[in-house]
Amino acid sequence: MNVELVAESVVQDFLSPEDEARAFWRLRYRLAATSLRQVLATARLRLALIVGLSVLLWLALFWLFADGFWFLRSGIGHPETHDQALRAVFGMFFAALMIMLIFSSGIILHGSLFHSSEIAFLLTVPARTPRVFLHKFQEAILFSSWGFLLLGSPMLLAYGIVAGAPWYYYAMLFPFILAFVYVPAGIGAVLCLCIMRWLPAQRVHVLILVGAALVIASVWFIWSLSVGRESDLLTPDWFQEMLSRLRFAEGRLLPSWWLSTGLLEASRSAWSQSVMFLVLLIANALFCQQLAAWIAQRIYRPAYSALYGRNVRRRRAKTARIDRVARRLGAFLPQQMQLLLVKDFRLFRRDAVQWSQFLIFFGLLVLYFLNIRRFSYDIRHIGWINMVAFLNLAVVGLLMSTFATRFVFPMVSLEGRRFWILGLMPVRRETILCEKFLFAVGGSMAPCAALILLSDVMLRVAPVVLASHQLTCLILCVGLSGIAVGLGARLPNFHEPSPARIAAGFGGTLSLIVSTLYILAVVLLTALPWHFYLAAQQTRRVVGDAEFASIGRWLTFWVLAGTAGSMVLGALATVLPLRIGFRAFRRLEF
Amino acid sequence: MIEFDNVTRTYGRKVAVDRLALAIEPGELFALLGPNGAGKTTTIKMLVGLLRPDSGTVTVCGHDITKQTRQATRLMGYVPDQPFLYDKLTGREFLEFVGEMRGLERRTIDARIARESGHCQLDEFLDDLIETYSHGMKQRTVFASAFLHDPAVLVIDEPMVGLDPLGVRLVKDLLRSRAGSGTVVFMSTHTLAVAEEIADRIGIMNAGRVHFLGTVPQLREELSSHHEALEPLFLELTGDGNGRVSSRNAQRTPTTT
After folding, report:
1. By CB neighbour count within 10 A (0-12 exposed, 13-18 middle, 19+ buried), where does A544 fall?
2. pTM, whole model, 2 decimals?
3. Chain A interface test: which of B2, B7, B45, B50 (most A C-beta within 10 Å)
4. Among A310, A325, A371, B140, fewest CB within 10 Å belongs to which?
């Protein structure tokens, strides 16, 4: 058969750009509608929890921002200074968000444009390259900016209400935000494409370098803001100094400044000025999108090809010293359990995606605890110190509960997928669950105890309170591990290979709720009696020793009772879920 | 119809495909055989435009795949070794999307879906969500999507993986029937028996180079002087399993077309 004839017989017209865009939107709509229907039908509890918590967070932020704006309004009477303060707050907020959006959209696009299996499919259909890029670009905008909406909308609404803004301020909010997010997302996309085209092998190094530079700059900036004598705090000179240090965020060429100025002008009924900034933002948003699509047209396919054409070095892994140390630490355990522990430790250690997320939160908490004295000028009262110390304990507990849900809960489900390995070996099923429990306790106890110790040292709490916090930390880690392992064995998901999705399912959500309630109960049981005891000690000089002795005995009893109660609760939270898990795991068919 | 003109592709220092020169005509079912890491999948990825050659050109119906990617890919149907399907779409919705992307009209899409649903036996589950499909059902849906626009060129990477005997028979019949109607079928496979049964021409590849190119009778002729079955010859042509090729193979570098 003639070549041209065959080719001619099947040639269809290309879709017009508009029809192509519509086809992609229809695809997205169908995918979203099906997912939503499924969530409504099968995961109502999860959905209700997510919506409920989001609404709570939104309301809390709204209240916080409204309170802050009222404070600024009443605290700074001078109109010009008030205006300067607002511009500084808005400028910093949006400039920080802009940097975060550049980063997050670039990272999301790196995954979706270069590592998703969908893209390998889309690149083999005759869709225009810029359309394929825009399909993923719009997704990246959605994924990277929902946090901005959650944080930004309560702040902007609160400001509008406090400032008595006209109706068009509220009408322009969404167009302003939408136009704004396109600019950093476009910059992030261009950077991502260029790095992948010309530095595919060094992409991780580039990211680490830029990230490290930003972290150092942020730490230096925060440090520089907080340097100063406590006696100078909140004086007019200090205030002017702060404003001048924040002025870099008000550069006239920054899109974040156009956004903040446009919104501030709208709130002051200067609608023509506001519309000008909105138009400026929209024009730049369109330009950024066009620029990114134009660059994608030229370099996306070569970049994709270059990425998969680089020389991938095979990773070799020998028995690391750290494995030997882990083995020695668990030398008192049965041989099989030692082997299982080392295996899980290796899997966890070599999956950087797993531990890097935990490391970020851990690092942020370390940063916060190290600066706790610097930021907390007014924490001198013993009651406040203990309240902050217990709040820090609760925060560490909550971090631990997300760790347990995200990493420990899916362990049994993931083991189930490869259960043919362990299932054919002479290992008792109880041994497997016990090992998971020990792994979770061991893995969580060291970082949590270290964090709480750091917090207590920085707050200079009394040694007895420090010891009590360490005990509470142990109770939390053991209980949370028991809940995650037990429920993970009782409600496994063997169909899902992704631990993140297993954690996001019904079992994971239930584990998270139970864990959160458990943390609240344990912290309250230990924190409240201690709080009243320490508060009573403060009044000792006023009420006298005799009076205090009678109250003190009573409060000491409650401190001990609370500690005992938390220990009993910890034992129950460990034993009950594990028993349920053991029973279910013994009966489980793979 | 398909032409590889002195195509080379490297991964760093490793040469994945080395000066490949190959032409496949309309109506021909070509099977590319070789062990793991021979360069088959790289060859296929260059053919469908996912990877670009370092040197040389790949043309499909006269269109250079690197410079005229859209013109070339609209003439192709592609079944990858690990196909992607949208879990949250039904089989019908997926085929509609592919049909639209291929520029088919609405009425034509409906008619072709009905036709391919019959050919690939999808009727029972076409309106179910893809996430509920078994591997075989997914594989048949991907075949239907590749056939939907009656492509001039069909490119298939490991078509029989995970299929039951009935599915294997179905795919073999479909590929033969497509080749019979003038379509170029380019297939890569590990399975010598499949290639022997349905291919018009076979290429045996190892370490990036084609070591044998010819029809099945030519291959049989080759073996009759040295071997009793195809398999020992295949194993010899593809080296000792460690990527090393015997000296005898080096002399059998093919003349192409």
Report:
1. exposed
2. 0.78
3. B50
4. A325
Strand partners, B8: B55
What is the spatial distance between Cα A564 and Cα A562, in angstroms, rounded to a whole number? 5
Can you give the pLDDT at residue B257? 33
Are A21 and B98 contacting, i.e. CB atoms less than 8 angstroms apart? no
- Measured between beta carbons, the chain B residues lying within 8 angstroms of A498 are none
* Model pLDDT, residue A376: 54
Cβ neighbors of A62 (< 8 A, separation 6 or more) are A154, A157, A158
CA distance A118 to chain B (A): 6
Residues of chain A in contact with residue B152, where contact means CB-CB under 8 angstroms, are 6-7, 9-10
Q: Decide if B103 and A14 are in contact by the 8 Å CB cutoff.
A: yes
Q: Using the beta-carbon criterion (under 8 Å), do B11 and A312 form an inter-chain contact? A: yes
How many Å apart are CA B144 and CA B109, to the nearest integer? 12
Model pLDDT, residue B229: 58
Per domain, the residue ranges of chain B are 1-75+153-257, 83-150
Residue A569's contacts (CB-CB under 8 Å, 6 or more residues apart) are A475, A479, A518, A521, A522, A525
Q: For domain B1-75+153-257, give the fold.
A: Rossmann fold (3.40.50)
Contacts of B86 in chain A (CB under 8 A): 27, 31, 118
Q: What is the pLDDT of residue A118?
A: 92
Produce one character per residue of A439-456: b if its CB has 16 or more CB atoms within 10 Å, e if not. Answer: bbbbbbbebbbebbebbb
Residue showing tokens 């002017």: A240
* Residues on chain B touching A310 (C-beta within 8 angstroms): 11-12
* DSSP letter for each residue of A294-325: HHHHHHHHHHHHHHTTS-PPPP-----HHHHH
Ranges under pLDDT 70 in chain A: 1-12, 225-235, 238, 310-319, 353-354, 357, 371-383, 417, 541-543, 590
DSSP state of A201: T
Q: Are B153 and B77 within 8 A, CB to CB?
A: yes
CB A68 within 8 A of CB A60: no
Separation CA A539–CA A58 (nearest Å): 39
* Chain A closest-CA separation from residue B63 CA (Å): 11
Give pLDDT tens digits for A268-295. Answer: 888 899 999 999 999 999 999 999 999 9
**What's the angle, vertex CA A170, arms to CA A167 and CA A174, rounded to 5?**
145
List phi, psi (to 5°) of A127. -90, 150
Contacts of B71 in chain A (CB under 8 A): 126
| Sign of the C-alpha dihedral computed for residues B167, B170, B171 and B172 taken in this order | positive
The burial class, CB within 10 Å (0-12 / 13-18 / 19+), for A315 is: exposed
State residue B30's pLDDT score: 95
Name the helix (H) or strand (E) containing A471: helix A463-490
Q: Note whether A16 contacts B: Cβ–Cβ < 8 A.
A: no
Q: For residue A149, what are its two tokens?
A: 């909406």
Q: Is B205 helix (H, G, I), strand (E, B) or coil?
A: strand
Distance CA B102, CA A268 (A): 53
CA distance A69 to A362: 31
Q: Which residues of B touch A28 (CB under 8 A)?
A: none
Helix (H) or strand (E) holding B32: strand B29-33
Q: Which segments in chain B show pLDDT lower than 50?
A: 240-257
* HSE-up of residue A464 (Cα within 13 Å, Cβ side): 8
Closest approach of A463 to chain B, Cα-based (Å): 56
DSSP letter at A78?
S
Q: Residue A316: its pLDDT value, please? A: 66
Instruction: Tell which A residues from 147 to 206 touch B, by Cβ distance under 8 Å.
Output: none
| Cα nearest neighbour of B104 on chain A | A12
